[in-house]
Amino acid sequence: MCGIIGIASNKSVSVNIINALKKLEYRGYDSAGLATINKGRIDEKKCPGRVEKLEKILFQNPSEGNLGIGHVRWATHGVPNEANAHPHSTEIVSVVHNGIIENSSELKKILEKEGKTFKSQTDTEVITVLLTEKLQNAEPLEAVFKTLGLLKGSFALGIIFKNYKDFVIGARRGSPLAVGYSNDENYLGSDSYALKSMTNKISYLDDGDVCILSKDEVKFYNSNKDKINKEIFTLSENKSEVNKGNYKNFMIKEIFEQPITLKTCLKEYIDKIREEINFYNLPIEPKKIKKIVLIGCGTAYHSCLVTKYWLEEFTNLVIETDIASEFRYRNNRFDKNNLYIFVSQSGETADTFAALDLCKKENLKTCSVVNVVESSIARQSDCVLPIHAGPEIGVASTKAFLGQMLVLYLFSLKIGEVRGDLDNKKYKKLISNLKNLPQLIKETLKEEQKIQFIAKDIHNSKGSMFLGRGSSYPIAMEGALKLKELSYLHAEGYPAGEMKHGPLALIEDGLPVVVIAPKDKYFEKTLSNMQEVIARGGKVLLLTNSDGKVISENIRFQIDLPSSDLSLTPFIFTIPLQLLSYHVALFKKCDIDKPRNLAKSVTVE
Ligand code: M6R
């Protein structure tokens, strides 16, 4: 997955391209590049590494030109080096690409047989070479359509042409692409976020669309080459200027923002006077739902797993969860009376989008839980439930996870009540309990110092395990994901009761084992599983809410978290796990906001 930008203007574009690329770095940051049309030729500059490095290159050797494209890369084909960085240019055309060309090897073989040569190992370069060939006897728009007809896979493209210094061409299939409008300047970008500091007037390309972007106008064509009009959206509040404030990095800022983001979300959904949850426009009447299927990737998938426990508690519905990349290829038993819920912070995750698209094609009822309301997933689903967490910049998802869980918790209560599965008195009580949630999170955050101490103790370990039962099991998985993602320390999240069926063999002297044991119906059982770990030398960090009571002398660390209604423990018990992964990564001097090999928004399969 990568980020692309294109600008057609009446003034020099390179500074704005660099600024937009910095915003797009959440999509990929292993190399960066740009190309402009300058004095009748293509001026291409690129490098492995961050946009900052590209900026320094431009400082030494500026790129002039009123028309340009830019790119940040997350490698799919070929290692991150200068040759594989985008743009990919020949003397007459330059291309930036987000997505994957699935038939690139076949096309490359054919082109090589014809005597064409390649400078990189990327799939994208076949597009450049094909376009160069087609441009010999076609105008740019026609050459683009001819080239697109040969490509299999997904793409969002930005293309400039040496002999046409007035326009950029954009094209979309599978990967998102937005257009922004301003005075004497128009833009192309992977998302509206990258364009927000320049404009709040946005249109979105649909699959198969192509656009021609000049400084004064934007023309759109559908896949049949017919000219089409696009709706122009005015983006809500300008959230583009996110900064770290006094925090060291975005992740820790976002962790500490959680009491506020949860409060905002509660305000959006709860009618305080009537003590009622407001959900509008669900695509299916709750009483008619046969089954709910929850789908997501990574952290978003973990929020689906927690929700399964809530929905099974508050309703008598059948609940299914799936990882989007599995769901999209399974032989699903689709049913028109099912509700399919897609969970995604970015709303752009390719696997989740493809799973949603599959459901749309089957005419199924869909709903999305997203942070970015202008995203592709939000726009494609029948109903959108925003999490109101504000921009999440750190690659590791923190406040979005709590936001997803909160919206899905409210959803579970509401569905339970409307269906008559959840007693109205209990429903009102659970709503009323929620007003304490932001404060409970605030108190839990006070444990940071203790966690810092634990992080110091374990940061050199060679592995770790996270155990829980019931809804604490997905929380254990989330804790493990956070730790491996941020600190590159091996971590496994496991149902505590499963240890004896194999993973117990991993326990050896000093192995850190985080045990998540709120005082719920699993408490005693989890403690027994914990003792089995201690007996084999495991170094246990117990997270519980036993009001300071020492559970066992053999526990290395015990942290007591605030007590709450038991259904709220997933929110509270996530906090120390976020802090633990953060501090371990800090001790290991890892790049907190941009962990190696990852990207914030995974827009390829
Ligand atoms: O934007 P999404 O929520 O769809 O992203 C899904 C995953 O890629 C994401 O949650 C990933 O697992 C995070 N980096 C985890 O911290």
Topology:
Blueprint: E1 3-9, H1 14-24, E2 31-38, E3 41-48, H2 51-60, E4 67-73, E5 88-89, E6 93-101, H3 104-113, H4 125-134, H5 140-148, E7 153-161, E8 164-173, E9 178-182, E10 185-189, H6 192-195, E11 201-204, E12 210-213, E13 218-221, E14 227-228, E15 233-234, H7 250-256, H8 258-269, E16 270-271, E17 276-277, E18 291-296, H9 298-314, E19 318-323, H10 324-327, E20 338-344, H11 350-361, E21 365-370, H12 376-380, E22 383-386, H13 399-419, H14 424-434, H15 437-445, H16 448-458, E23 463-468, H17 472-487, E24 490-495, E25 512-517, H18 523-535, E26 539-544, E27 557-560, H19 569-587
Parallel strand pairs: 18-19, 18-20, 20-21, 21-22, 23-24, 23-25, 25-26, 26-27
Antiparallel strand pairs: 1-4, 1-10, 2-3, 2-4, 5-6, 6-7, 7-8, 8-12, 9-10, 9-11, 11-15, 12-13, 13-14, 16-17
Helix pairs in contact: 4-5, 8-13, 8-15, 9-13, 9-17, 13-14, 15-19, 16-19, 17-19
The structure holds 5-amino-5-deoxy-1-O-phosphono-D-mannitol.
Describe this structure in words.
The longest helix has 21 residues, at 399-419. The protein folds into three domains: 3-234, 4-Layer Sandwich (Glutamine Phosphoribosylpyrophosphate, subunit 1, domain 1); 243-435, Rossmann fold (3-Layer(aba) Sandwich), CATH 3.40.50.10490; 445-593, Rossmann fold (3-Layer(aba) Sandwich), CATH 3.40.50. With 605 residues, the protein is an alpha/beta fold. An eight-stranded antiparallel beta sheet has the order 3-2-4-1-10-9-11-15. A seven-stranded antiparallel beta sheet has the order 5-6-7-8-12-13-14. Helices cover 35% and strands 24% of the residues. β16 (270-271) and β17 (276-277) form a beta hairpin. It contains 19 helices and 27 strands. 5-amino-5-deoxy-1-O-phosphono-D-mannitol is lined by residues 297-300, 344-346, 349, 352, 395-397, 481, 485, 601-602.
